[in-house]
Design goal:
With 204 residues, the protein is α/β, with parallel strands linked by helices. The termini are far apart. It has helices at residues 17-27, 39-48, 66-74, 96-101, 114-149, 174-181, 192-198; strands spanning 9-13, 32-36, 52-58, 84-89, 106-110, 164-165, 171-172. 43% of the residues lie in helices and 16% in strands. The protein folds into two domains: 9-142, Response regulator (Rossmann fold); 153-202, no CATH class. Strands 2-1-3-4-5 form a five-stranded parallel β-sheet, with helices on both faces.
C-alpha cells in the first residue's frame, strides 16, 4: 500500500473574509488551508495544530495586529519554527525592520497576485523543509558524537586478557566494546613482533 503524500498546511489570518476566501481559493488545490479572522483565533488555531507549515498574516487587524501575533507565535515553542509571511497593502506605512525583528520571513503585498503568492509560498515551504532536515541531521550528529564520547574517560581493562569492563559491569572483549560504542569495525592481522614470536620459522 502506497504511503500518503504529505500536504502542507497553511494558516491564513485576515480580518476581511473576502481576502481569506481569495487566498483559500488560490491555495486550496495544493495545500490544506485554515483561516482565522483575528489574532486571538489565529494563535488558538496555531497552537492547537502543530502541523501548520506556514502562516500568512495580515498586519493591520483590530485588537491584536500582525506584529503582536507574530511575536507571540515566535515566542512559543510550539510555533517558534513556523515561518510567518506578512500580508500588507502597498500604501500601508508598515515597518519592515519591526517585522523582521519579531521574526517575519517575508512580505506579500495586496492586492494579491496569484503567481506571486504561489511562488512566495513555495519558497517559504521549501526553506522550512530544508531547515527541518538540517535540524534532523544536527540531532543525528549529536547522537553520534555522544556515542563517541562514551569511549572517553577511564575504562577498566584486564592487565592479562585485555578485556574491558563495560557499563553494566560485565567483562567483554575490547573489540566488542568498541564496536558497541562506535561505528568502527575490526579486521585481524599480525603485527611484526607477534609474527616473530608466533611464527619464527616464517620470519627468518
Amino acid at each position: 500500500m502506497a504511503s500518503e503524500t504529505h500536504v502542507d498546511t497553511i494558516l491564513v489570518v485576515d480580518d476581511h473574509p473576502a481576502t481569506c476566501k481569495l487566498l483559500e481559493d488560490i491555495l486550496g488545490n495544493d495545500y490544506h488551508v485554515l483561516t482565522a479572522g483575528n489574532g486571538r483565533d489565529a494563535l488558538d488555531l496555531a497552537w492547537a495544530n502543530p502541523q501548520i507549515d506556514l502562516v500568512l498574516l495580515d498586519i493591520v487587524m483590530p485588537e491584536m495586529n500582525g506584529y503582536e501575533v507574530c511575536q507571540q507565535l515566535k515566542g512559543d515553542d510550539r510555533t517558534s519554527d513556523t515561518p510567518v509571511v506578512f500580508l500588507t497593502i502597498m500604501e500601508e506605512d508598515h515597518d519592515e525592520a519591526r517585522g523582521f525583528s519579531v521574526g517575519v520571513s517575508d512580505y506579500i503585498v495586496k492586492p494579491i497576485s496569484r503567481l506571486r503568492l504561489l511562488a512566495r509560498v513555495r519558497n517559504q515551504l521549501a526553506l522550512h523543509r530544508k531547515q527541518r532536515e538540517l535540524e534532523l541531521k544536527n540531532y543525528e550528529l549529536k547522537v553520534a558524537l555522544d556515542q563517541v564520547k562514551a569511549l572517553h574517560g577511564i575504562l577498566p581493562i584486564c592487565s592479562f586478557c585485555k578485556q574491558i569492563r563495560n557499563d553494566q559491569g560485565a567483562w567483554q572483549r575490547l573489540e566488542e566494546y568498541i564496536q558497541n560504542h562506535s561505528e568502527a569495525e575490526f579486521s585481524h592481522g599480525v603485527c611484526p613482533k607477534c609474527a616473530q614470536e608466533q611464527y619464527p620459522e616464517y620470519c627468518k
